[in-house]
Design a protein that fits this description.
Phosphoenolpyruvate Carboxykinase, domain 2, alpha+beta, nine-stranded mixed sheet, Phosphoenolpyruvate Carboxykinase, domain 3, binds manganese (II) ion, 16 helices, Phosphoenolpyruvate Carboxykinase, domain 1, binds sulfoacetic acid, eight-stranded mixed sheet, single chain, 30 strands, 3 domains
Length: about 625
């Protein structure tokens, strides 16, 4: 479709302005067809960026290798450009919006020379659903177009919903590598140097401008930029929740169903948890979403969640038939792989895939030939696949996708989980004493930084409130207030008992030998079963200063977990918690200044008192 055929005058004008600024060789409005997807892949094959995988082993699938400077989200280069700096808050980078637009306009000037500008109309959430939001992304990357085809609903059907004057979030994206006459990418991943990358959000005008990166959340703008950073602002203004949460459906042996959402920082196993195969007999887990949940109150006072995405952008290393068989099934065909190893027989490979690589040689994520590894482990820094290598796969290919995953009304949520990677202090599971106590728990989430972000903090524990640290589009203190308000609204409506119960989980506790005590993966179903029962007021529990914990016999021990291990997993480390609370008081909460809700200070005082009591 041509730009001149666009029926939405605001959209047409915006595209024309972008065209005048970025001066691409041509403009194409995407229709979202299968033929279009194939064309995008073909273009990247011809420019030497994509390798087609063996048609018998991995039908319809391709592998890309990105630039070493462009392998993950760039938090240092991500901006919330609200009019007032205070509205971005202490956890976001801020630049004055007018100044940032000036800087970026200069970068965008002529940035698409030699390339095609693609216009992608996309819907986050089922097309036409009341909860869904429409965005339009302009990009010069056919790789991004193909990924957006999988991750969102794209094309003409979205334009139909938009009509002549519908609301959309305008999203600019350019990889920032114009081509001179006759120049081709020729196998080199196009992007700009780190210091020229900008992932910018203008919350007041609901705009997204991204420049210089072609990777993941920096470039697939429906995901973190729209569905979290901009959506969190919309949710605050409109009274709902846009969260960095998986959504799972769990059925007990009696056939009773509950839906649970869980917030964990990037690369902490959300995809694995959302798709887990329970080791507990008779229990079943199905997937509604693996990364983002949008939740609104229903007429019955319950919170209903939808998954705004249509695919999985999952971390490849560590994914295997033991850790996540459903993901392995989901990526058997029609999948885009990025920064994985390439085997001699034309398939992908990564660390912890469950087996060594076939043949004599393998090509690593940098494109170098290396001896094929015999085992599935590599020394740190010498990985064949980048630690943040990813697969992009359609959600409908997942064997355990729940039948209601695209229900526009969403699914009613019974429990929220919060968690992170915490080697010490935090127990296996802990239920909050109240909504406010739960908000307090969410506000102090800490986790070891993973390879999902380019950072020199990888491996260190940092506070990541609600797992939203890199994704909250406004002042985090106000975000805490918003959560408190959600609880208060339910109270005022007499529906506080319908609110989800809140739990803190930690699969990552380590012993003195630095080994994980809890086996995780499918065995996490034992913890989910206790949570399920607690939602019905059942499940053996004990009241402690930090919250409600299972009694030592409430969760049946999996193989390899001794009685002493279980005691350690459920131990309330009073001294450790005192330090934790002191750190919150001294280092974490003061960051938010007068934007920190008084209710959270009261919770902090209360837990401190209980710990000293
Ligand atoms: O932001 S990405 O989509 O690249 C992945 C993540 O950090 O969860
Ligand atoms: Mn995520």
């Amino acid at each position: 479709m041509k730009v001149s055929e666009l029926k939405h005058s605001g959209l047409k004008k915006w595209v024309e302005e972008a065209q005048a600024l970025m001066t691409p060789d041509a403009v194409l409005v995407c229709d979202g067809s299968a033929a279009e997807y194939d064309r995008m892949i073909k273009i990247t094959i011809d420019s030497g960026l994509a390798t087609v995988l063996d048609e018998n082993k991995r039908p319809g699938s391709v592998l890309y290798r990105s630039d070493p400077s462009d392998v993950a989200r760039v938090e240092d280069r991500t901006y919330i450009a609200s009019k007032n700096k205070d509205d971005a808050g202490p956890t976001n980078n801020w630049i004055d919006p007018a100044e940032l637009k000036k800087t970026m306009s200069a970068l965008y000037k002529g940035s698409m020379k030699g390339r095609v500008m693609y216009v992608i109309p996309f819907s986050m959430g089922p097309v036409g659903s009341e909860i869904a939001k429409v965005g339009v992304q302009i990009t010069d990357s056919p790789y991004v177009v193909a990924n957006m085809h999988i991750m969102a609903r794209v094309g003409s059907k979205v334009l139909d919903v938009l009509g002549t004057d519908g609301f959309f979030v305008p999203c600019f994206h350019s990889v920032g590598k114009p081509l001179a006459a006759g120049e081709k990418d020729n196998g080199t991943w196009p992007c700009a140097p780190i210091s020229n990358k900008y992932i910018s959000h203008f919350p007041e005008t609901r705009e997204i401008w991204s420049y210089g990166s072609g990777y993941g959340g920096n470039a697939l703008l429906g995901k973190k930029c729209l569905a979290l950073r901009i959506a969190s602002v919309l949710a605050r203004d409109e009274g709902w929740l846009a969260e960095h949460m998986l959504i799972l459906k769990i059925t007990n042996p009696q056939g009773e169903v509950k839906y649970i959402t869980g917030a964990f920082p990037s690369a902490c196993g959300k995809t694995n948890l959302a798709m887990l195969i329970p080791t507990l007999p008779g229990w079943k887990v199905e997937t509604v979403g693996d990364d983002i949940a949008w939740m609104k109150f229903g007429k019955d006072g319950r919170l209903y969640a939808i998954n705004p995405e249509a695919g999985f952008f999952g971390v490849a290393p560590g994914t295997n038939n033991e850790s996540n068989r459903n993901a392995m099934e989901s990526i058997k065909k029609n999948t885009i792989f990025t920064n994985c190893g390439l085997t001699e027989d034309g398939d992908i490979w990564w660390e912890m895939i469950g087996h060594g690589a076939p043949g004599k040689e393998i090509i690593d994520w940098k494109g170098n030939r290396r001896p094929a590894p015999q085992s599935d482990k590599s020394p740190k820094g010498e990985e064949i696949a980048h630690p943040n290598a990813r697969f992009t796969a359609p959600a409908r290919q997942c064997p355990c996708i729940a039948k209601e995953w695209e229900d526009p009304a969403g699914v009613p949520i019974s429990a929220f989980l919060f968690g992170g990677r915490r080697p010490k202090t935090v127990p296996l599971v802990n239920q909050s004493k109240s909504w406010l106590h739960g908000v307090f728990m969410g506000s102090i989430v800490g986790s070891e930084v993973t390879a999902a972000v380019i950072s020199d903090q990888v491996g260190q524990v940092r506070r990541d409130p609600f797992a939203m640290l890199p994704f909250c589009g406004y002042n985090m203190g106000d975000y805490f207030k918003h959560w408190i308000k959600i609880g208060r609204t339910a109270e005022e409506n007499g529906t506080a008992d319908k609110l989800p119960k809140i739990f803190f989980v930690n699969w990552f506790r380590k012993n003195d030998e630095d080994k994980f005590i809890w086996p995780g993966y499918g065995e996490n179903s034992r913890v989910l079963a206790w949570i399920f029962d607690r939602c019905d007021g059942k499940g053996k529990s004990v009241d402690t200063p930090i919250g409600t914990l299972p009694t030592p016999d409430a969760i049946e021990r999996p193989a390899g977990v001794s009685e002493a291990d279980m005691a350690e997993l459920l131990r309330v480390d009073i001294e450790g918690w005192k330090k934790e609370i002191e750190d919150v008081r001294k280092n974490h909460y003061p960051k938010f200044g007068d934007r920190l809700p008084a209710e959270l200070k009261t919770e902090l005082d209360a837990i401190e008192k209980r710990l000293h009591g």
